[in-house]
Amino acid sequence: MDFSRKAVCADGFDFVAGIKIKTADELKLMRSSCAVAAVVLEEIGAFIRPGLTTMQVDEFAAEQIKRHGGKSAFLGYRKYPRHVCLSVNEEVVHGLGGGRELHFGDIISVDVGVSYRGFIGDNARTFAVGGCGVAAQRLLDVTEQALYLGIAAARPENRVTDISRAVQDFVEGNGFSVVREFVGHGVGRVMHEEPQVPNFVDRKMNDRLHTGMTIAIEPMVNAGQPGVKILKDGWTVVTQDGSLSAHFEHTVLVTDGEPEILTWPAAKLSKLKVA
Ligand code: MF3
Ligand code: CO
Predict the structure, then answer these.
(1) DSSP 3-state assignment of 89?
(2) 234: Cβ below 6 Å to ligand 1?
(3) Which atom of ligand 1 has the smallest separation from the CA of 192?
(4) Taking the domains of the chain in order of start, what are their residue ranges?
(5) Burial letters 214-225, b for 16+ CB under 10 A, else e
(6) What is the model's pTM?
(7) DSSP letter (8 states) at residue 258
(8) pLDDT by residue (tens digit) across 236-247?
């Protein structure tokens, strides 16, 4: 039976090759959790400025998530000890808020996962602190553009590798490199569902995409070599060569037509929350 043509699957037929297909009711909830995640990310972006410590940013994030009635999807996940991930300059992902002070010209990757009404919304963006140099800005632009090219490939006639290829070709064509050790993922009631969505072509991860799948696409791009290592805190991932790194992420719904970006910040939060 081919489920791929259906807008949403009927109850009881909601997995294809182990990948969850969201029902219309589930998508309503998912839209609201993603809208909260998107708004919180925007609020953090507006808050960031030179002179703050990353711990102050984490505390602000916690307040905003709470104010919207959500919960951090990261706090406590595999014992993760903060509300959001804050990764500065050579830090790639999973950075822990702490005493590090933000300076003008730094870049900071902010990853926000929110649990709301039983579903997760996951998104990330790298911000310049006040402003940044042209080399850093080019890294941000290429990484963000790679995310949108990946999203454009998230269509039911495609496979996961089509997303991966779109991201990798663009990033490497611009002289940067994609991180191999961390990948995007299906997202829904839990943060990490099938399939894995690498930012490089991996023939082992060649699942077909189907309408109704919700996936987090998240290129992590290094200005230098692709290698990373984990600091002694057990979480913070940094580039091996000390080069800058950027990270952009959206939660996306595969549809019969254009992919729908569920963590688009302009989503009408108040409308979605009462739906
Ligand atoms: N967006 C990241 C991911 O999808 C965030 C996970 S951070 C963790 O893996 F702390 F929760 F692990
Ligand atoms: Co994610």
Answers:
(1) coil
(2) no
(3) 4
(4) 3-261
(5) bbbbbbbbbbbe
(6) 0.93
(7) S
(8) 999 999 999 999
